[in-house]
Design brief:
The chain has helices at about 15-45, 50-55, 60. By secondary structure, it is mainly alpha-helical.
């Protein structure tokens, strides 16, 4: 049985490009999470105290979400 060594170095700049794409992707994911939290807080702020009580929250809990 023959064994072939297939390990090759990555092309020039491939690792840097991959890391850049990871950073950009992570930044967009963080911005999306921040925006989702902002929209949720705004929606909860518009609810009345009774509606918040129905879902088990109070006004003070909104900031921690």
């Amino acid at each position: 049985m023959a064994a072939v060594n297939t390990t090759r170095p990555a092309p020039f700049g491939a690792i840097s490009t991959f890391r850049f794409v990871q950073i950009v992707g992570g930044t967009f994911a963080a911005l999306a999470a921040w925006n989702d939290a902002r929209v949720t807080r705004n929606a909860l702020c518009k609810l009345s105290d009774r509606e918040l009580d129905d879902i088990g929250l109070c006004r003070g809990d909104i900031d921690s979400i």
